[in-house]
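Quick one, probably user error.
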C-alpha cells in the first residue's frame, strides 16, 4: 500500500494553518482532478477544449454517490429516524438527515447546525467531541461548536475539506473555479447566500433555457404532466414510481421532450424516474439557478476556522456505550470522546464503510437501507471561443442517445467559453466508470448536438 503523511490542520484564530505530522496513513481516496492535457482533436468534431475537468462521485469511496433521494415506497420520515441521536452520545448529520431539503448544500448545512445544537443540549463543560466528516454538514457543526469550550476534533478521510463540494481553483486553466460538486443554490438557501455575500464570493444567474433537437430549437416541454402525475399518484393508497405515475397519467417518459426534462431532474436530484417516489418526489429544478462562480472552499475554511481538523484520517470503527464513544481510525489508532457527530454520506453508511459496535438500532439501520443514494456527475470544458452564439445559459438536448443532455453555458454570465455538463441517474454511474479520455469524448459528442447547423 502506498503511504503518505497525515495532515493535521490546526486552527489558530486568524486562520487555518497546516501542520504536517509524520505518521504514516493509507493514501486518501482519489479525488477528481483537472486534466492539464486535453486531447487536441475531440470526438464528435468541433473545437478542442483547452481545459477539462470531470467528477466521479459515484465511485469515490468517500461519497459513493452524489445526493440521497427517497425511493418508491419509502417515507421521508426515514430521514428523521436517521437523524435521531443514540444515547446522547452519537449524533447524525449530513444532507440525508434533512427532511426539508435532502441532497442539497442547504440541507447539509442545516443538518450540521441541528446536530450541534442537540449535542450541546447534552454535553457538559470541557467535554471531548469529535465530528466525522468535513463536508458542509461537518463544517457547520464545527462552526457551531467552535467557541463553546468543548475540545473539538474533526476527522476527514480525504486530504481536503469540503466533501461533495469541490472548487478547482487554477487561474491558468479556469477563469472561474470548476465546481465538481454542489454549486447551484436556490432562492431559499439564505444561510449559504449570506456566507457567499460576506466572503464576497461571486455568483451568477442561469435562467435562459434552450431546447435543441436534431431538427433545431424546439419549444420547452411543459412540466405540467409531471405535476399532474404526481398529484394523481399521491391520491393512491400506495406509492408508485414517478415513471409509473407518468405512464398511468397517459404521459410517455420516453417521449423526447419529457425524457429531456426527466434527464434534467435526474441530473439535479440523482434518481431516475423509475427509482423516484411519487409521494416524496425529487424537486423540479427551478427556472433560475444561482451559480457560485467563486471558490466554495473559502466557505468551508471559514466554517472550520480555529478547529482542529485531521485530514486523511478515515474513521473505520465507532464503538459507543452510555459512557462515551471510541473512534477507530484506519491508521490503527483508537481515540476516546464523550460525544461524536457522524456526517459521512449515506453511500458510505450503506457500504458498511464504518463498523458500529454495537450495531446501530433498527431505526437507523432501516433508514440507511431504504433511503436511496442517487448519482450525479459533472464535466467542465473551456474553449477558446463560445461554441455557438447564444445568450441561452441552460441547454437541453431533446432526443438522440447522448448521455449528457443538460448543459450550462457560462459565456453569457462570465464572458468565458465554459460549458458545464450534468448527468444523473444510471447514465451518471456509466459516466463515472469512463476514463478521462472516454469521458471527454462523451462530453464532446454530447455537445455536438448543439453545434449542428439547424441548431445554430
Ligand atoms: C455532482 C454534484 C452536484 C451537486 N449539485 C448540487 C447543487 O447544485 N446544489 C446543491 O444544493 N447541492 C448539490 N449537490 C449536493 C451537495 O453537494 C451535497 O448535498 C452536500 O455537499 C453534502 O454535504 P454533507 O456534508 O452532507 O456530505 P459530504 O460533503 O459528503 O461530507 C461528508 C464528509 O465525510 C467524509 N467521509 C466519508 N467517509 C468518511 C470516514 N470513514 N471517515 C471520515 N470522513 C469520512 C467525506 O470525505 C466528506 O468530506 C451536488 C452533489 C454532487 C455530487
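Nope, works fine. Designed sequence:
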Amino acid at each position: 500500500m502506498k503511504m503518505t503523511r497525515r495532515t493535521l490542520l490546526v486552527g489558530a484564530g486568524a486562520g487555518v494553518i497546516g501542520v504536517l505530522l509524520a505518521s504514516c496513513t493509507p493514501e486518501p481516496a482519489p479525488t477528481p482532478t483537472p486534466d492539464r492535457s486535453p486531447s487536441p482533436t475531440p470526438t464528435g468534431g468541433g473545437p478542442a477544449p483547452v481545459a477539462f475537468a470531470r467528477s466521479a462521485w459515484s465511485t469515490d469511496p468517500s461519497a459513493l454517490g452524489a445526493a440521497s433521494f427517497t425511493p418508491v415506497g419509502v417515507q421521508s420520515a426515514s430521514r428523521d429516524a436517521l437523524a435521531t441521536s443514540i444515547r446522547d452520545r452519537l449524533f447524525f448529520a449530513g444532507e440525508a438527515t434533512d427532511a426539508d431539503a435532502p441532497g442539497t448544500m442547504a440541507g447539509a448545512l442545516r443538518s450540521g447546525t441541528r446536530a450541534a445544537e442537540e449535542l450541546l443540549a447534552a454535553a457538559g463543560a470541557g467535554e471531548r467531541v469529535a465530528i466525522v466528516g468535513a463536508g458542509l454538514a461537518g463544517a457547520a457543526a464545527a462552526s457551531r461548536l467552535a467557541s463553546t469550550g468543548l475540545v473539538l476534533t474533526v476527522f476527514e478521510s480525504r486530504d481536503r475539506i469540503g466533501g461533495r463540494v469541490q472548487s478547482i481553483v487554477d487561474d491558468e486553466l479556469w477563469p472561474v473555479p470548476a465546481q465538481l460538486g454542489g454549486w447551484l443554490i436556490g432562492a431559499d438557501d439564505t444561510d449559504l447566500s449570506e456566507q457567499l455575500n460576506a466572503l464576497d464570493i461571486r455568483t451568477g444567474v442561469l435562467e435562459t433555457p434552450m431546447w435543441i433537437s436534431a431538427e433545431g430549437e424546439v419549444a420547452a416541454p411543459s412540466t405540467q404532466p409531471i405535476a399532474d402525475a404526481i398529484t394523481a399518484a399521491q391520491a393512491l393508497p400506495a406509492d408508485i414510481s414517478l415513471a409509473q405515475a407518468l405512464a398511468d397519467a397517459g404521459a410517455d417518459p420516453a417521449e423526447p421532450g419529457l425524457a429531456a426534462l426527466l434527464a434534467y431532474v435526474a441530473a439535479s436530484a440523482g434518481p431516475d424516474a423509475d427509482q423516484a417516489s411519487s409521494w416524496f418526489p425529487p424537486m423540479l429544478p427551478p427556472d433560475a439557478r444561482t451559480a457560485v462562480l467563486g471558490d466554495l472552499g473559502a466557505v468551508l475554511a471559514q466554517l472550520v476556522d480555529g478547529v482542529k481538523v485531521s485530514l486523511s484520517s478515515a474513521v473505520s470503527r465507532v464503538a459507543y456505550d452510555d459512557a462515551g464513544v471510541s473512534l477507530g481510525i484506519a491508521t490503527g489508532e483508537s481515540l476516546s470522546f464523550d460525544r461524536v457527530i457522524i456526517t459521512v454520506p449515506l453511500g458510505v453508511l450503506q457500504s458498511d464503510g464504518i463498523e458500529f459496535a454495537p450495531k446501530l438500532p433498527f431505526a437507523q439501520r432501516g433508514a440507511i437501507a431504504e433511503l436511496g443514494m442517487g448519482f450525479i456527475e459533472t464535466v467542465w470544458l473551456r474553449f477558446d471561443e463560445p461554441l455557438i452564439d447564444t445568450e441561452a445559459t441552460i441547454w437541453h438536448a431533446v432526443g438522440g442517445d447522448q448521455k449528457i443532455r443538460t448543459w450550462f453555458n457560462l459565456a453569457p454570465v462570465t464572458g468565458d467559453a465554459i460549458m458545464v455538463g450534468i448527468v444523473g441517474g444510471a447514465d451518471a454511474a456509466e459516466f463515472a466508470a469512463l476514463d478521462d479520455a472516454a469521458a471527454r469524448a462523451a462530453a464532446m459528442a454530447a455537445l455536438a448536438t448543439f453545434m449542428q447547423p439547424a441548431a445554430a
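The first strand starts at residue 3 and ends at 11.
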